[in-house]
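Please review this pair:
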Amino acid sequence: MKNDSYQNQTEDSFYNGETAFLEEINLRDYFRVVMHRKWVIMAIFSITVLLVTLYTFKQKPVFQAVTTIRIYKDAPKVLSFEDVVNTGGGLADFYKTECEVLQSRTLAKRVINRLRLDLHPEFIAKLKTKESDADKPVSVEKLVTIFLNMINIELVRNSQLVKLKAETGSPGLCVSIVDTLADEYIKKNLEDKVLTTTGATGEIGKQLKEIKKRIEDSEKELYKYARQNDIVAMDASQNIFMKELITISEELTKAEAVRIAKEVRFLAVQNSDDLSSLPGITDNVLINELKLEYTKLQAKYAGELDRVKEDYPLVQRMKAEKDFIEQQINSEQGWVAKAIKAEYQEAVGKERGLRQRLEELKRENNELEGKSIGYKVLKREVDANTLLYEGLLQRMKEAAVSSEIKTTNIQVVDKAVLPTTPIKPKKKLNVLLSMIVGLTLGTGIAFFLEYLDNTIKSADDVEKHLKSTVLGVLEKVAVDKDEVQNFDLISHELPMSTFAEAVRNVRTGIMLSSTDNPKKIILVTSTTPGEGKTFVAGNLAIVIAKTGKKTLIVDCDFRKPRVHKAFNIETMPGLSNHFVGEGDLDLIIKPTAIPNLSVITCGLIPPNPSEMLGSHSMEQFCMEVRERFDTVIFDTPPSLAVTDTVILSNIVDGIIYVIKSGVVAKEAAKRSLSQFAGKKGEVLGVVMNSVDVAKGGYYQYGYQYGYQYGYGYGEDTGKKKGLIERMKGKIKLKNV
């Protein structure tokens, strides 16, 4: 039967290059890594804590003293903000500048000189660290650097407070340093103010002389300009002109309106044939009275004509009166028309005169404005110089008063208190931090080593990376010397042990993997030597034999045979002897002390193992043992080292692959397993060997179950041995 199942499992992973499936990382994986690398973690943890503890307790105690001062931001007393160039900056810049002043080398030298720190033992010890420096003179700059390293200036957030801190090995010295630093800072502030005020007074005096001369020169220029342009009082002259200009302008507007109204009447008289209906005539009282009298006389005249003839004297007299009245009306209308014309001509003349006067005033005003521009420029210069002179004179007086008043904007809020407890080293904190750092560093290195470790360590690794079935997990065995006589046959000597139960689990896994087609001939191999394949094959043969099945274990490792040592029997004659005709099958089959279990040893080591195992004789041998035994187990060489195992995989029914935990690289195991793809022998699964449960090498469920189940058989043979007794008799026998 071809090994199609394993070929299908590995086809995508090994050949197609598709992305491997991702499995969720859980706490069990982390716990396994920690347990596996616990000695690394403990070593790094212990070294870190030990080094930090030694360093901490070797350090000299350091004391800290704190003096708190308050700094007010006062405005300059010499010149106002408006009179000086804008220096910029706000509160943040001000306090930052003051903090820098407190840490200046100039202030540090003042404190050093005042306290004579060049003679203090602590400073001398730091200056003269070498014997060769003992005779050298004290360096002031180095002393200042040491001093600045001892102090710390801290600005209290959102306040005017500044904390001066000093850290030294002497409590009294650090108190003296911060108190003296605050005192010298206040003195320096006062000295700077006095120097600033004195210097400003002299500078202001120079400026006053210059400005006074400028005032005199500008006044002379103004007077000269006024005389040349006949300017007596520029503002008064301009006011008179403006008043007259406004008056004439208003009168001109009125005259223009009157002229327009009279012009309308005049044009109406000029263009009309009948003057009786024109405005100014219709409302004339005399003309209206004459018209009324003419109308009455006309009525009488018409009445008399009806009664008498036209030549009648009364009629003639009435006609004469009527003509006279009509003549008077026409004469009066003529006079009214002449009056309208005269009024119009008078309005035109008045308007013309006002307009001429307005133009004259405008010309005179423009001339005055031209003269006033130069006058105002000179006047402004005089006023500006005068104002600046008066301001500087006032500042000079204030500066003189300020130089005599010694005030400061710095106040000591709290003086330093003599410290009784050192701030360094913080022993408890350092040890605690070293424990945290050591544990973190150790864990990190453990995970890094785990990342670099590319070996198969657990059943999870087999399923994840090899995509193969796990038949069972055999933990690392540690037994007392007097408990077993032959460690290789531990399943026989300790049948109730945890290990024996784990081997039985492997047997059950084999049976369940081939219920329909039982595997009679099973090949046991590994990737590299030393993984315990012979150990696993022997103990597996023991547990199968104890089920009543006739079992045969054959040593097919013609290079480094070991089955004869495990069962303590003679190696001759063996399988190779049978192949060369030196013994029949019955002669090489050797019984053991274990019921139903027989052994065929290797025999004489041949020069051509691969050819012998692939010969027709080997096939004939398989057919014979298949008929005689229920189960046959071949112990073969490592599959990655030689080709013997691959040759045998074509004539066996199943393959059991043994992997020692933490020994075989993943890629090596993959390559080794891939050799069986397409072979007759089916890869039944993988047996994980020598798994260190104490290091988390095997999933917890399997360990607990196997331990409890195996431990439940039989009776307690006696009390558990004491620790010293067990340590004397214990030997670490590992399944190799």
Notes: Confidence is low (pLDDT under 50) at residues 4-24, 75-88, 697-736.
